């Protein structure tokens, strides 16, 4: 496996070697210790796709955190899914645009290719592709006649790439699973989850939704053997215990749910998940967060969740591996102090780089969130953190 170039930089290796290791715990024995910041890079909030279509006409004129709308081009923003390309670059998925179905009809759903450089602290956008439905797989009406997908059609929040080079995304409006080719063209009809419908679901037909708005598939995991997907809901289904989230199993060969599911229990019913990724057959890293930002942020964590339920309480066992509001920064990376905080409203991307190193990205909710500096629109930040202990991950988790 070729490691990303961001981890091969001298600066990152120096931090990893020079920082004294906190006595870590094996995941079977207790929570990990304090993670260490090993890389920081940032993409300015006002970054746009060159020569693209205008956007933001439906959000009002603002200014929002000092930024006026509409915009002459499409913003590069709202990273809600990530795929490691193993060459120092990453595919990142922008979400539905400006937060809801009503104000995002002029935002084109898109996957960007980015190259973070932790030596310079910058992120380059190398290109990308829009998501579209030229083969007319979507059976309900779309916003645009050319069938380029917008934030009024789907709220895409998670991204995986499978062995054949195609992509799957999780959507919150259905919620649906969506299958795209390498150029972003939809290959199959949206796959619904039986018994679960959001308020935006086109098939609701006047019935009561069973899950809250924007509480559909926030996380989507590819199994380490590449045969299954595990979409994770952000909200509790009606009738379930508040704070319990369904983690369903989907078979890629049959293109159908298997009926098997697990339960991820939030530390508070007011929390939400941001992303999930497989470590091995049974264990998954899950971002859990509150809705606060800046000084009001109190809970931004990454847990190792285990389906084996060793304590028999009916939910996945959880081990804390990183508190994103309390990260050691002995080298002062990014110009920050000895304690680094990742204090954003929405933190929606985690990827496993090696057995002790994670990359984490925020969704900056452009132009609305201001978690880093009050009154200033958040950048898209890319950080790498080193855990105090190995995860003992399945080697296939790094594919």
From TrEMBL:
Keywords: Signal
Signal peptide: 1-23
Domain of life: Bacteria
InterPro entries: Phytase-like_dom (IPR027372)
Pfam families for the chain: Phytase-like
Domain (Phytase-like): residue spans on this chain: 74-366
The keyword Transport belongs to this UniProt entry's keyword annotation: no
Signal in keyword set: yes
Protein known as: Esterase-like activity of phytase family protein
Organism whose genome encodes this protein: Streptomyces chromofuscus
């Amino acid at each position: 496996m070729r490691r990303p170039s961001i981890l091969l930089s001298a600066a990152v290796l120096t931090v990893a070697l020079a920082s004294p290791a906190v006595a870590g715990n094996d995941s079977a024995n207790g929570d990990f210790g304090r993670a260490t910041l090993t890389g920081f890079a940032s993409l300015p909030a006002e970054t746009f796709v060159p020569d693209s279509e205008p956007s933001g006409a439906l959000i009002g004129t603002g200014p929002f955190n000092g930024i006026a709308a509409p915009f002459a081009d499409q913003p590069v923003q709202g990273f809600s899914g990530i795929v490691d390309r193993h060459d120092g670059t990453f595919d990142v998925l922008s979400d539905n645009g400006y937060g809801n179905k009503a104000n995002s009809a002029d935002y084109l759903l898109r996957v960007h290719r980015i190259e973070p450089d932790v030596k310079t602290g910058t992120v380059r956008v190398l290109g990308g592709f829009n998501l579209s439905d030229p083969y007319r797989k979507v059976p309900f009406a779309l916003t645009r006649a050319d069938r380029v997908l917008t934030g009024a059609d789907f709220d895409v929040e998670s991204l995986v790439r499978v062995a054949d080079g195609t992509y799957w995304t999780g959507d919150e409006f259905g919620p649906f699973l969506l299958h795209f080719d390498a150029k972003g063209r939809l290959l199959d009809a949206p796959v619904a989850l039986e018994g679960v419908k959001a308020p935006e679901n086109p098939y609701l037909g006047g019935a009561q939704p069973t899950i809250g708005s924007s509480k559909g598939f926030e996380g989507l995991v590819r199994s380490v053997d590449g045969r299954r997907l595990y979409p994770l809901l952000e909200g509790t289904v009606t009738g379930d215990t508040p704070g319990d989230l369904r983690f369903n199993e989907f078979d890629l060969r049959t293109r159908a749910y298997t009926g098997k599911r697990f339960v991820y229990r939030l530390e508070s019913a007011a929390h939400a998940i941001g992303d999930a990724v497989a470590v091995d057959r049974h264990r998954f890293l899950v971002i859990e967060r509150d809705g606060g930002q800046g000084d009001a942020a109190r809970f931004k964590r990454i847990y190792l969740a285990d389906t084996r339920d060793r304590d028999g309480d009916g939910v996945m066992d959880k081990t804390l591996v990183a508190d994103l509001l309390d990260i050691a920064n002995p080298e002062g990376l990014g110009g920050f102090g000895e304690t680094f905080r990742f204090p954003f409203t929405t933190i929606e991307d985690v990827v496993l780089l090696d057995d002790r190193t994670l990359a984490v990205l925020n969704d900056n909710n452009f132009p609305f969130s201001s978690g880093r500096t009050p009154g200033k629109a958040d950048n898209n930040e890319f950080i790498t953190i080193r855990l105090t202990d190995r995860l003992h991950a399945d080697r296939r988790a790094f594919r």
